[in-house]
Structure formats: structure tokens, C-alpha cells
Amino acid sequence: MYNNWNKSKLNDQIKIVAKKMYANPSPDIIATLNTLEDLKKNQPKIFPQEERFDEQLAADKSLVHDYSNFIPSIEEFAKQDETFSFKHLNGLTERILHKRTLLSFTHDFYNSIDREFAKYFNRIFKERHNNLRITDRNQQGYSRNYITYLNTINYAYINIYRTHTIDDFINIIHEYAHTIADQMCYRPRYGKYPFIELLPLLMQEIAYDDLIRCFDDLTGDVINSDIGITKTVLKYAKETLLQQQYLSTVSLQTERKQFVNKFAEYSNNTKAKTEKIMNVTLQEKLSYVIPFLVMVELYDLYYEDTEKSLYLTKKIITMDEVDDYIKYLDSLGLHLNEHMDDYIMYQKNALKLTH
Questions:
Q1: pTM of the shown model
Q2: Each residue of 90-122: pLDDT tens digit?
Q3: What is the DSSP letter of 165?
Q4: CA atoms within 13 A on the CB side of 34
Q5: Cβ-defined contacts of 247-253 (< 8 Å, 24+)
Q6: Where are the domains of the chain?
């Protein structure tokens, strides 16, 4: 069970969408049909990479321009001390990580946190025998967590890659949060809207607290997992600033090898580390850094005024695109980095208690 998506369901959906296509061959319908055909072939999801480096440079420069208002906030966040260390997560027993336990925790979490979120969650969750795939280390090509949301038929296919650590709980919470946000207001993953990852990040942060209550003997693993996310996003913030500063000095005709060599000199890094930095696109880094800054403020508010925190979260999820997102957040009373010091200090103190 959950080893793969239900092929019979896929076939039925392909027939339905094919009929829609003949009646109305719109780009969205054609894209949905092509996606379903790929899922039927059991092909691993192909994550888009820029084929030409000049196109990637152009996209990165455009991105930096679009999100320029966030740069001061990212600079402030990047000053945070990252010297606090964390242990590698322990492998957990099958008693804890059994698939039914993962799903029970996820079900109970979303059905207790908010009525509207629960409605959208249950719409997708009830199809779990058809649309949820939980893969393992021995299944090649599926070593990522992702969802494929099909807006034209309001359906999602979910892939969860098991790590056999507490992260399995967080990953499944994260991906189902995407299905909720997509149903509330579907947006393309790589547009100008910067908060695609906001709901998943907030839900997983709250889920960490629930995990401690459910499995108090695993507190150390939960804290370490949470800190691991913070350290990754902090690293992305520092790398974003480096890339943003360097991008203004290069032309679109720069070749990748030349870019890596010069960027290595500029950043005082080795070429190998520079390649590693560039392996995660600037788009992907910013898609986590910016929502993370907002998430910290909503998370702080959550335990002071839960209803208001979730209300503001929904407003951001469903908002129209604006020219100045910082101004919009300020109008909601959310000021980036206002509670970041408290958030980091809490993690450091919690870490000390687990040692």
C-alpha cells in the first residue's frame, strides 16, 4: 500500500481529460493530459533546469530585481549566528515510522488546526490510496518530496521519500500543506508571487511542537530537525546575497565556466564549493528564504493569537500580486525579523536542554 499511484484511477482521469481536450484544447488541459500520461508511465518527476546559462542569468537578474525590496531583510537575517550545531538525526523505530502512524499524525494535525484547512486537506487525503506514493531508499529516481497539483481537475499526486527519521513526519505535513494552498489559490511555482512555501513552512513549524507532545522521548530529534531547517535557510540567505551582489557585475553572455571561476574568486570559495552553491538555483533559495522570514512572524503570533495568525496566513495565500510585498506585509502588522532573535534563541535553548 502506498508504494505507487493507482493506475486505474490514472487511466480514468486520462480518459476524462482527453474528452475535455477534444472539446476545448486549451494549453492548461493539454498540460494536464501530458502530466497524467507521464505519471502513468511511472516516470520520476523532472525538475526544471535552465537549458542555457544565459537564460538562467537573465532569469536570476530579473528575480533579484523583482525581490529587491526583500534584500535588506535578507541581509539582516543573514547576520544571525549560525555557530550552534546540531546532531544528525537518529533512525527511528518502525513503531514510530510505520506508514499508518505517519498518516494518522498528519490526519489528526490538519483536522485539529483549522476548519478551512481541514476541508481542503480531507478533499485530497481521502484519495490517499490512489494519489499518495511513499517511496524508499531502494526505489531509484524518486528521492525527493513533491506534489503534482492538477488545477484543471482539482487533484494532486504526492510523492514522499522516506528518510526513516523524524523528517518523515515533517515532509508529509509540508507536501499536504501545498495541496491546501493550491486549492485556496493556485499559482505557478515559478512566478513573481514569493510566498509559495509559506503555508508548508508554517504548518511544519507548528507540527514540530505537536511531535514533541506526541513523542516526548524524541524531543532531541525534533529540535535537531527544526534547527536543520533554520541552518539551511540561513545558508541560502548568505548565498543569495553573494549571488545577488555578483550578478550585477556580469553580462548575459558570460559562460558558465567563466562565471564559476570568477564567482569563486569574488566569494573567496573554492570552485567545488561554488559549483555546490549554484546547484540550488537562486529561485529555489529565495522561494524558501522569503517565506521563512514571514513564517517566523506568523509563528510567533500563532501562540499569542492563533485565530489572527491563521487569518493573516490565509490573506497572504489568497492575495493578489502587488508591486511592494514588504509594504503589504507591514499593512498586516508583520515586520520581517522583528521576532527572529527570539526564534533563534528559543532553538538554541531547546538544543541545550536535549544534550
A1: 0.91
A2: 555 545 556 678 899 999 999 999 999 999 999
A3: S
A4: 8
A5: 247/57, 247/60, 247/61, 247/64, 250/57, 252/54, 252/57, 252/58, 252/61, 253/54
A6: 44-354
